[in-house]
Amino acid sequence: MSKYGSLEVICGCMSSGKSEELIRRLRRAIIAKQKVIVFKPGIDKRCSEDTIKSRNGVSYEAISIYQISDIKKYLTNEIKVIAFDEAQFFSRELIQLIRDLIYSNYRIIVAGLDTDFRGQSFGIMADLLAEADSVTKLDAVCALCGGRATRSQRLINGQPAKYDAQLIMVGGDEMYEARCRDCHQIPK
User: Fold this and answer.
1) Across-strand partners of 176?
2) Residue 13: which of 113, 128, 125 has the closest Cα?
3) Which domain holds residue 74?
4) 100 domain residue, yes or no
């Protein structure tokens, strides 16, 4: 039995099932009689302030966070599992908080996009991947060819977004689709 907690990172492109996998792990923790808490970035308002939701409609109660310092006020001794969805949108402060929580014997589960629409490391995800005790990288189905998709294609008026387009634009299927490496396009 370890005296420390752990960090599990679930990553992949849009539509790869990251939130679904996160919710699956949370439900298993509840079956194991572990108290869980879920946080999401305040910037993500796609479904509601108080839930995370997978593309297949499965949802789970969550707390929207605007300041990393607010997280600690929600933690109690009964909580054993702390989850973060859409981790790429959190500030760098989350990395140190997660380290502290691991050494306080919490199981941390993080889900997020590992790359942005350009195919480059997204936000704090590279650091979380390096810190992780385990990593699950999910893929999707390419919207164009049906192959293995590992990239998130941003679309503007149905066309691939240019490289210099705004980096963060929260959206769903109307703005993004999963693409394989061959079909992913970043016009200059």
Assistant:
1) 154
2) 113
3) 6-139
4) yes
Beta strand 59-61 with 63-65 is: unpaired
Instruction: For 126, list phi and psi in degrees, rounded to 5.
Output: -60, -40
Q: Phi then psi for 16, rounded to 5 degrees?
A: -95, -5
Number of independent structural domains in the chain: 1
Q: 90-129 pLDDT, tens per residue?
A: 999 999 999 999 999 999 999 999 999 999 999 999 999 9
Residue type, 104: S
Tell me, yes or no, whether 115 lies in a domain: yes
Residue 113 sits in a domain whose CATH number is 3.40.50.300
What CA–CA distance (Å, rounded) separates 140 from 137? 10
Answer yes or no: 49 catalytic: no
Which of the residues 61, 86, 131, 177 is marked catalytic?
86
